[in-house]
Amino acid sequence: MNEMFYPSEEVLKNANVKDYESIYKRSIEDREGFWAEEAEKLNWYKKWDKVLDESNKPFYKWFVGAKTNIISNAIDRHLETANRNKMALIWEGEPGDVKTYSYHALNREVSKFANVLLSMGVQKGEIVTIYMPQIPELVIAMLACAKIGAVHSVVYGGFSYEALAERIADANSRILLTADGGYRRGKATALKCIANEAMRRSPTIDVCITVKRTGDECFMENDRDFYWHNLMGMPIAGANADTVELDAEDPLFILYTSGTTGKPKGLIHTHGGYQVYTSTTFNYVFDIKPEDRWWCAADPGWITGHSYIVYGPLINGATIMLYEGAPNHPYPNRWWSMIEKYGINILYTSPTAIRGLMRFGASWVDKHDISTLRLLGSVGEPINPEAWRWYYEVVGKGKCPIMDTWWQTETGGFMITPIPTMPLKPGSATKPFFGNEIAIVDEKGEEVKANEEGTLIVKSPWPGMARTILNDPDRFIEKYWKQFEKQGWYLAGDSARKDDDGYFWIIGRIDDVLKVSGYRLGSAEIESALVSHPAVTEAAAVGLPDKLRGNSIHAFVILKQGYSSDSQLAEELKDYVAKEIGPIAKPAEIIFSDGLPKTRSGKIMRRVLKARALGQDEGDLSTLED
Ligand code: WTA
Fold first, then answer.
1. Which of 13, 283, 385, 607 is the most buried (most CB within 10 A)?
2. Phi/psi at 284 (nearest 5 deg)?
3. ω before 58 within 30° of 0 (cis)?
């Protein structure tokens, strides 16, 4: 646990910022001053009157009174400089097709699509739902929404119609942007067919715009369905569009994430604070240089993609890489060959992806010259030291520091993370990012001793924090702010330890949220999918440790009378969940049971199920009903 990896002379010499401790100290002593200084580096149509407004906690406001639009920083300002001709986006499709966009070209496509959206009557503040594979149009669509002040709600392209329909309904979306499909492991996914099914279930959609990617046939309804390329070829899609001037606190996007109840939460992020937080964290942690090529191998449909494929890097004028498909298609060297081909300098991915590629062995990596890499990153779940070392030695050749970044959909950007000059310990996300005071406490809010496990809390507000939950501010308070209301602390939902050197070690979720392959799922979502099957009366889903995925889903199921608990039904139920929610939610195991451990108030005690499945002590059972 105390093995240290020190940065090389070269890293120390070239890093944008070198002294973590002094900047951190300054950022805590004068938080607002620190953030104001960072904000000064960006464009604002009008500067703020006040950096932080704490008058209505926990509904904090940042850069109050300022006028801005994230697009003025992510695109517009680059058009005035040499960045205009710089590559903004390099995209490779799974079949091998390539598209590139300079900042100039990106601006043109975004402006054209902004005009298309305006022609469809899209208003400022309106929520546009986007359900797309990893293609450039996904990024263009997000940016076009932001440009005209519409709010995007990206639904991960691996989700199924039920999940999509629920998110469309909650957002009351009138516009859906999708594609006929995308490629994954050599097969085309039928996204538009799924979208059609979702629109049938959630009929608020008036207009659906479909990108032709695979060319597969899909049903198109008159007056509702349009093809992207047709609209982009019409006079309405002019190449000039105004970037709308907005309030700093105007919403930029909604992103749904799994919580402890079945209903996903639509977290709201804003233009002003989010642009400052994502660009600052990206610049300091990934030490971005003008000549760098940056690859965040996440899906844009998750927060990692929003903050560190799209907004943070573009604000910094970086060149971003986007890849459509699977890391091991057609062979396990796909990523390494792309790093070689494009000369990628920084790679940011998840422990699951690293473990997945590690399985195939170092020889696939060694076939390629990936010496351009100078920095690596990890996100989504704790990285086990074995995977860390492989990543460090085999991928990074022992010269690339690994930035293990702990953060959440709710936080908008990195919260605990190293900077490149910091000594690293495999498996530790190291220390709080500038401005953040973070602690490990017990139930009463007392700080626990060094090396003891406790609840992770954030004591201070930060500009990238989610402002609320769409349509449900009470739930926002309840979930994140209630437990330590007196102290005004943010409850992250993770447990962690802090060692003698002040390094943080994340252990995992303490609520009923599961992290499967880095994806976030709620136990309750899986359970409600299961009970919607005619054979099931009750279900409980837990995550058990899995060498590859971090966790895998194990579901305990009580059947209705007349159904027999055989392996055929178990398989059917697994497929059913995959169809209802998406392949990532497919349970690894279905366990038929006659009863479930419950409290007297009827809450399922998943902790007991988990302990039993692992053969561990079941703990205090005195509150059990049965
Ligand atoms: C987990 C992903 C350990 C954690 C950006 C958190 C991590 C949840 C790390 C948020 C990390 C994320 N080490 N655990 N470096 N990064 N997590 O909202 O449990 O999809 O609460 O955001 O992922 O997941 P989300």
1. 283
2. -75, -40
3. yes
pLDDT, position 529? 93
Q: What angle do CA 364, 366, 370 make, to 5 degrees?
A: 110
**Ligand 1 centroid vs 520 CA: distance in angstroms?**
8
Mean pLDDT for the stretch of residues 95-118: 98
pTM of the model: 0.95
Residue 405 CB–ligand 1 contact under 6 Å: yes
Per-residue pLDDT of 186-201, as tens digits, reads: 999 999 999 999 999 9
pLDDT at 1: 62
Specify the ligand 1 atom closest to the Cα of 509. 19
Query: Closest Cα to residue 413, out of 18, 15, 12, 35?
Result: 35
Atom 25 in ligand 1: residue holding the nearest Cα: 408
d(CA 302, CA 300): 5
Structure tokens belonging to residue 331: 């062979």
The torsion region of residue 64 among left (phi > 0), alpha (psi -120 to 50) and beta comes to beta
State the pLDDT confidence band at 257, using cuts at 50, 70 and 90. very high
Q: Which long-range contacts (CB under 8 A, 24 or more apart) does 54-60 make?
A: 54/461, 57/481, 57/488, 58/476, 58/477, 58/480, 58/481, 58/488, 58/490, 59/467, 59/468, 59/473, 60/461, 60/465, 60/467
Could you tell which of 381, 428, 505, 519 is best to mutate to test the pocket of ligand 1, judged by most ligand atoms within 8 Å of the CB?
381
Spatial CA neighbour of 420 closest among 442, 396, 454, 451: 396
> What is the per-residue pLDDT for 593?
92
Sequence-separated (6 or more) residues with CB below 8 Å from residue 37? none
Q: Is the CB of 285 under 6 A from ligand 1?
A: no
At residue 360's C-alpha, the angle toward residues 354 and 362, to 5°, is: 80
Regarding the beta carbon of 380 and ligand 1, being less than 6 Å apart is answered: yes
593 closest CA partner among 550, 542, 544, 552: 542
> How far is Cα 227 from Cα 207, in angstroms, rounded to an integer?
11
Residue 612, pLDDT score: 85
The CA dihedral of 278, 427, 17, 458, to the nearest 10 degrees, is 50
pLDDT score for 260: 67
Q: What is the mean pLDDT of residues 547-562?
A: 94
Q: Is 382 in the pocket of ligand 1 (CB under 6 A)?
A: yes
**18, HSE (Cβ side, Cα atoms, 13 Å):** 8
Using pLDDT thresholds of 50, 70 and 90, give the confidence band for residue 598. confident
Best mutation site among 299, 520, 521 for ligand 1 pocket (most ligand atoms within 8 Å of CB): 520
**CB of residue 299 inside a 6 A radius of ligand 1:** no
Scanning the structure block, which residue is given the tokens 């590859």? 548
Q: Say if ligand 1 is within 6 A of residue 494 CB.
A: yes
Q: Can you give 130-172 as a three-state secondary structure string?
A: EECCCCHHHHHHHHHHHHCCCEEEECCCCCCHHHHHHHHHHHC
In short, whether 303's Cβ falls inside 6 Å of ligand 1 is: yes
To the nearest 5 percent, what fractions of the chain are helix, strand and coil? 30, 25, 45
Residue nearest to atom 23 of ligand 1 (CA): 380
Alpha-carbon distance values, 252 to 97, 146, 248 (Å): 31, 6, 10
At residue 134, the pLDDT reads 97
Distance CA 328, CA 511 (A): 33
Q: What is the pLDDT of residues 264-312, one digit of tens each?
A: 899 999 999 999 999 999 999 999 999 999 999 998 999 999 999 999 9
